[in-house]
Structures are given as C-alpha cells and as structure tokens.
Amino acid sequence: MAITSFKHGKNNFYDLEYFPSTIKISRRFRAGPFPLNDSLIDSMVLHVKSVFDRKCHYKTELVVFVISDPKTFELREHIRRIYGKDSQYFSGFTRSKSIKEYCLLFSVGYTSDLKLNQKLDWEAYTKGDVIRVPLIESYHEIAHKIILTLFLLNKINGSFQYILKVDDDAFIKMDKLMPYVRKLTEKQVLVGYRITIVPRVKDPKHRWNVSDLEYSRDVYEP
Description:
By secondary structure, the chain is an alpha/beta fold. It is about 35% helix and about 15% strand. The chain has a domain at about 40-190.
C-alpha cells in the first residue's frame, strides 16, 4: 500500500507526480536523456530545492552530489556516517569559520521494481538527502542522470558556488578538498583529471561498449 499520510513542509510526501507510489511505472520514467524542456521540470526543481533546503545550510558553498545505484542502501549509509552530516567528523570539521561549508546529496533514479522504488522513497523521506530523478537506472546511461542532476541543481539558485560529482564507491578527503576549493578564484571552472587519446570500446559484449550511434569516432576527444 502506498504511503500517503506523511508530510514534509507544506506538501504531502507524494505530491510530486513522478514518485512511483502514485503512478507506478509510466511514461514519466525515461530511459535515455530526459528532455530539459519537459513539463515536469518545474516540479522536479521544486523537489530538488526542497531537498537542498532541508539538508543544506544557507551558507553552503559546495554541494557534493553522489551518483548512487538504487540497490546500494548500505553504501549510502556508510557515506553518511563517514563524511556526511551524520558523521562526527563533519560536525568537528565545520566548526572552523574559515572553512567553506559543504553538504552531501544523493542522486538516485528508479527501477521497474515498485517495492524497491517505495523503499527508496522512504529513505528519501527519512534521510532528507536523496534527489529522485525520473530516469530508469542503467549503468550504461548514467551520464543522463548526471546531466539532469547538474541541470536541476543549477536551476534552484542555491547559495553554493561549486558542485562536486562523485560515485558512491569513492571516498572524499574533505579536509584536503575544502582548502583547495577555497583557493579557487575562477568564476567558472571545471576541475578534474583530463584523459587523452582513449580508444572507444566497440565490443558489444563489453561492459563499456559504445555504439557508433552514441559516438562514431575511434578515439575520444579530450
């Protein structure tokens, strides 16, 4: 039975149409890229802003968003305890006024398993740090979830200046990262490890296979 009685702020927990408990699996759940001009975007922006306002501080300057698989409940809980706001490390780390504050959010899509989706909804409600994006989860199409999450975070006009995308199997040394962020002076900067002259995997049986339709060249451009 769908949970319908819980409240978060002024809205019912399942007010947003793309929660599976009210619509199950429908056309709103997409495989592939999500149209950024879709009629659902405004509701999704409100959802993301609600998550940000609930979990992040008004002085937050760095948002760490973790791309997470729906099934990895334990990994998300470990992250919360290790360098999320549930950890003792976080509370001690942010006492210094000279350190820019950060907040931790998760980006999680949907599966064809309604019970799993409802379990994720419950996690999102109780933890308050999960952004639900209406995309069918697929490792091969994870880039679409990243693009949509970045787009939505940018649309909420939050206080943060920087966004860090990480996977849920990575550990971030915040005591090393934050001093680096404080030194950044560029208004628009993309920071990462640059990989050059990487051949495209063409074997259809390979996990990282990329078809000609997705990318036609033999080597990725830097």
